[in-house]
Amino acid sequence: MSNQSFEEGKLMAVIGDEDTCVGFLLGGIGEINEQRQSNFMVVEKDTTAAQIDECFKRFVARDDIAIIMINQIYADMIRTTIDKHLLPVPTVLEIPSKQHAYDSSKDSILKRAQGILKPTGRRR
Amino acid sequence: MTADDSKSEKNAAGQLLDSMYLDMFYLIEAHTQCRVDIERTNSSGAILLARTKFQQGGHSLTTAQIPTENSAEFNALCRVVEKAERVSIERHSVDKESGYVEPLHWFSVLPPMSLRTAVERFKKSIELVAESTNLQRELAKILNGIDRLRRSVAQ
Predict the structure, then answer these.
(1) Which residues on A lie below 8 Å from B30 (Cβ)?
(2) What is the mean pLDDT of residues A78-96?
(3) What pTM was computed for the model?
(4) B10 CB neighbour count, 10 Å cutoff
(5) Which fold has domain A3-122?
(6) Considering A103, B7, B83, B139, which has the largest number of Cβ atoms within 10 A of its Cβ?
(7) In Å, how far is A44's CA from the nearest CA of chain B?
(8) Is B67 within 8 Å of A38 when comparing Cβ atoms?
(9) How many domains does chain B have?
(10) SS3 B79
(11) Name one GO cellular component term (chain A) (predicted).
């Protein structure tokens, strides 16, 4: 591994429940930088959609983050914001959580693909 | 442009669209499969985390042990490196002096085997996430291409 390519590499961020965050942090993705910004958010029972939305936008605005993982259940809470994010970087990945299985019909990218398959006249 | 030229151009565009649709279907299948693999790997890791909690007590693995913005700064052990439009994961070895700390030590000084195995599962999941990112970016590119081509054919 070259140190230079590692330093130039970007981070992964995670917005998820306790198990998802603990798991990925154990995997080594977590970081707290010099500005005291973390790249993870643990969603608790009392966390509001506005707080998730604000955190998501903060991660999107950071240029050192390449991938944002978000539990699909929380992505559903901020679906409008996620659907608006069409840039390839950071890539937003909707991942399943312990209690909620992955539902491909809710995934933003697959919804776009479904839209493409509709005849032109019927598309919005 | 003659009517024949226009017809052959439309045929070529139609063939290109067909091949792009095929690519799209292949990518959708691979993308969904990758998510299912992530789900399986994460579930397996979560079961091992639950086993660790059962063996060590409910408070052995909680968010209270995760560093916060008020904790000392530290660097991520794995980073996303992009080469030739593909992302991959590179790992840094643990080096406490340079800020590369071992995340296992937030939870336990002597981590049990179940926790160590859980870490391996989540490391595997991180690799799958990188693969899923590549597939998703490729799929987004194909969708943009189809959209552009369909619009130009419609004009």
Answers:
(1) none
(2) 90
(3) 0.89
(4) 11
(5) Rossmann fold (3.40.50)
(6) B139
(7) 10
(8) yes
(9) 1
(10) strand
(11) proton-transporting V-type ATPase, V1 domain
